[in-house]
Amino acid sequence: MSTAILTGQPVPGSSLETDLRSLGFDVRIAADTAEAETLLAEVPADRRVAVVDARFVGHEHALRLGLTDPRFPLAAIPGAVTAQQAGRQALTRAMARESSAAGEGPAGGTTLTGSLADRVAAALEADGADVYRPDLGSLVATVPDDPQTRNEARQAVAAVDDEAVRLKSAVKARDGFFTTYCVSPYSRYLARWCARRGLTPNQVTTASLLTALIAAGCAATGTRGGFVAAGVLLLASFVLDCTDGQLARYSLQYSTLGAWLDATFDRAKEYAYYAGLALGAARGGDDVWALALGAMVLQTCRHVVDFSFNEANTGDPAPTGPTAALSHRLDSVGWTVWVRRMIVLPIGERWAMLAVLTALTTPRITFYALLIGCAFAATYTTAGRVLRSRTRTGRRTERATRALADLADTGPLAERLAAVLSNTAQRLPGFTAPAVALLGGAAVVTTAALTDFGGPWTALAALLYVPASALAVARPLGGALDWLVPPFFRAAEYGTVLALAAHAGVNGALPAAYGLVAAVAYHHYDTVYRIRGDAGAPPPWLVRATGGHEGRTLTVAVLAALLTASQFTVALTALAVAVALLVLVESIRFWVAAHRGGAPAVHDEGEPA
């Protein structure tokens, strides 16, 4: 249990102790600074501790925001300061210094004056500690000095409905049109219902996954009733998907494991649904596995573009230039903001389209619409980011170049060649990395798509792709357009697998390729989530064991050249199972260990994927 140390003389009629206990704090009272310091030392180091002025007046939700958010080691609001395990030493030092400044020894007995919590928070910041101060908005948090100001503060508390504020803040500040206007107006109340019944965000996330898997199963029946049920259940899954994040914000139940589950399950739900549609179409005599795999490839490459661009520009100053200026002008016109959010087809709009088209049309039409929409969205967003990058003036940080290198997923073959080519790469123009990655990837995909299955040409193109990909990463990815290298690699690998499986022309080849791309895509998503959580990339042994993007591309191309179509299908299936086992076991081990080890809680408040 967390501990709250109340400092100063208690105020008659104050609900502060009750509010703190309702937030899970064991309340202890200190009459002076020395006693507060003693009580602080008695609290176990692995527990959260808060120092709160007994004269505090404010909303309970202000206390909740300031004292219970698990994402920050140190946090403060007027009249209160808190520390988790990672911030306990800093808090102890600041408390000791305040005690010394007040002229109190370990056995002092001077009555506290002023707000000890505010002085400690100021001392923490003076020491360079990062003290989180939440934006309270209309919520009240103050320490009145006299009865009149106390009365005014209490009136201010009564004038604001903190439950309404809490519900409003549960909704993500930036979201898509469909989510904002068609889901969040009622899903926030579902989140509150879940909170009041003790449900956790992870439980709601799991319920969303199960609902989506049932939707995929309904789609796999291939019947009109199954398609209608699939559409309805997919929308229900999305409502739950919104609810889990809103529940986390409503109750401040953030966690490392929860953020990973939320992000991972979103991808699993969508790609499982694609597979369900393909199975349902096959039952009706229509083979759309190539479309399903194409949709997954396109959507995954879109995400890699988002991730790479964002990581590459972490820490950069605000963008300037004509493109940024036009974007700012469009943002000043309200309706254009929503149009621009909708045309990038974020998850809300995408799933709504999938649900409606599944219920009313056929899987083939659904995939055609999805591919056209995602292709337009990818072109729009990528073109805008390329234009912004051309006017980029900031120097890429070491963290950004390291993140791009991790996202590249370079295997042992290209890694060794890159070391040999590093001196040569230093003398080449700045656009070399993305140009070489694009040309090498386009060559192998085009060869796989245009030549007959079983010939040697794709294997030769893949063999040339290895030094091309090595040259692309032979120097740090610090160029203006180097963030394009990881998505070019993804498109090359996934596109080659798709083309070869499509040319195999036997039953099971495309589903096997779908499984392989899904397993590899999971590995790439997992890399992104680790980087976002400041946990670094997956271990080098995993990248080596899975071959890296160039190793897997070469392996699949060689298998297609040496094996019959049926044997190739079996080999793809075995490869998919092997990769899936490796990346899933290591990923689950890592995230569970990070959660149990007390890794800082994270929560994605970025744009919808």
UniProtKB/TrEMBL annotation:
Ranges of residues in domain DUF5941: 398-609
Which keywords, in A-to-Z order, does the entry hold? Membrane, Transferase, Transmembrane, Transmembrane helix
Xref: PROSITE patterns: CDP_ALCOHOL_P_TRANSF (PS00379)
List residues traversing the bilayer: 365-387, 431-450, 462-485, 497-522, 556-585
The superkingdom of the source organism is: Bacteria
Q: Which Gene3D superfamilies match?
A: 1.20.120.1760
Keyword check for S-adenosyl-L-methionine, yes or no.
Answer: no
- Family per record: Belongs to the CDP-alcohol phosphatidyltransferase class-I family.
* Protein name (record): DUF5941 domain-containing protein
Organism of provenance? Streptomyces cathayae
